């Protein structure tokens, strides 16, 4: 069945290749989809004041509050962060953000507020995760605080990262379906 669908799409792609005007129209359609997604992402970044307004929980360190694969929606407004809030932060020279709860808030000698975090399912605080020599998180380390969640929807993202070939196949198939779609 899947083979039939793929063969049909390839046949449609060959027909499309012969009709250059239709091919151009479909390529523009694909570009509009990509740019629309990018504009939505940039709009979310602006509204939430977060460089990453949506993140996927990648580990079990926040169980039972959040499970691996949950999607979190973030907001990074300027109001003070309080003990007990769940924040997403980024460590210098690490690509993957961390989702943990604020354990302590204190003011350093320069009047800046600093945070100590801990995963709900971890035994100790996060100081061992911070950059070497860093004992506290600063406001600029925070990507945002969790304001909403979608349970397990992010498992798709985790699977695509765990199996890169699956990602390439799915992206290729989606592009093929968009190009050969006659609606629009």
Could you please describe the fold and organization of this structure?
- This protein has 184 residues and is of the alpha+beta class.
- The chain folds into two domains: 47 residues; 102 residues, Umud Fragment, subunit A, CATH 2.10.109.10.
- Helices cover 39% and strands 21% of the residues.
- It contains four helices and seven strands.
- It has a seven-stranded antiparallel β-sheet.
- Strand 3 and strand 4 form a beta hairpin.
- Helix 1 crosses helix 4.
- The chain starts with a helix and ends with a helix.
- The model has no long low-confidence stretch (mean pLDDT 91).
- Its EC number is 3.4.21.89.
- It is a single-pass type II membrane protein.
- InterPro entries: LexA/Signal_pep-like_sf (IPR036286), Pept_S26A_signal_pept_1_CS (IPR019758), Pept_S26A_signal_pept_1_Ser-AS (IPR019756), Peptidase_S24_S26A/B/C (IPR015927), Peptidase_S26 (IPR019533), Peptidase_S26B (IPR001733).
- Its main location: endoplasmic reticulum.
- Keywords: Endoplasmic reticulum, Hydrolase, Membrane, Protease, Signal-anchor, Transmembrane, Transmembrane helix.
